[in-house]
Amino acid sequence: MFTRDKDAKPKSDDRIHETVTPLSDMGAAMATLPSPTEKPSGAVPRVASVAPVTPIVLPRDKNEIKSEAKSETKRLIVGRGISLDGKISFCDRLVIDGKVEAELEDCHTVEVTENGTFKGAAEITGAEISGHYDGSLTVRENLLIRGTGRVSGTVRYGRLHIEDGGEINGDVKSLASTKP
Predict the structure, then answer these.
(1) 24: containing domain
(2) Do residues 46 and 76 both lie within one domain?
(3) Is 116 found in the same domain as 37?
(4) 93, 40: one domain
(5) Residue 96 burial (CB count, 10 A)
(6) Is residue 143 within 8 Å of 137, Cβ to Cβ?
């Protein structure tokens, strides 16, 4: 019924006319747009879409950077099924759910979970033991041994808390009693 010759050139009415205005002429292009009350008279120039602008990042104040760094903790988590052997330094919080044989240096707190095992030496601020700890342990503030916790070796503590079922064996002394 309706056929069209493939080689025939389309009439000017069949083609879509589109005018893209460069950003430098944006003001002029906006001025040529008809107002909402005017009826369009012929072809209306189209304005090219504008890509989003990437914000400029200014250098930050040194104090702001320092306070941001303090809020970020240096945390190490040794997951279940993982073994770690060596020396651990400058860790704010060490969470052990696997097996660790190490010497802790400049670490703040240690948590040995119910599935965790620690063997080695640590001088820290606080500790919570729910698993097994074997070695030398010095806790300047609070040492908490949970009901499932087992601690053995040389233990020095500021304050000691042991839940029912928790065990501590070895050379155990309060830091208050060791002061001259």
Answers:
(1) 15-51
(2) no
(3) no
(4) no
(5) 27
(6) yes
| Tens of pLDDT, residues 157-175 | 999 999 999 999 999 999 8
Residue 116 tokens, joined: 């965790």
Residue 123: HSE in the Cβ half-sphere, 13 Å Cα cutoff: 3
Question: How many domains does the chain fold into?
Answer: 2
Q: Name the strand (E) or helix (H) holding 128.
A: strand 126-129
CB 48 within 8 A of CB 25: no
29 and 110 co-located in one domain: no
Across residues 4-25, what is the average pLDDT? Answer: 52
Compute CA distances 73 → 14, 76, 80, 106, 155, whole Å: 66, 9, 22, 14, 27
Q: In sequence order, what are the beta bridge partners of 162?
A: 145
Residue 12 DSSP one-character state: T
Same-domain pairing of 27 and 98: no
CB neighbour burial string for 138-168, b if at least 16 within 10 angstroms, e if fewer: bbbeebbbbebbbbbbebbbeeeebeeebeb
The 10s digit of each residue's pLDDT in 21-34 is: 455 555 554 555 55
Paired with 171 in beta bridges are: 154
In a domain, 63, yes or no: no
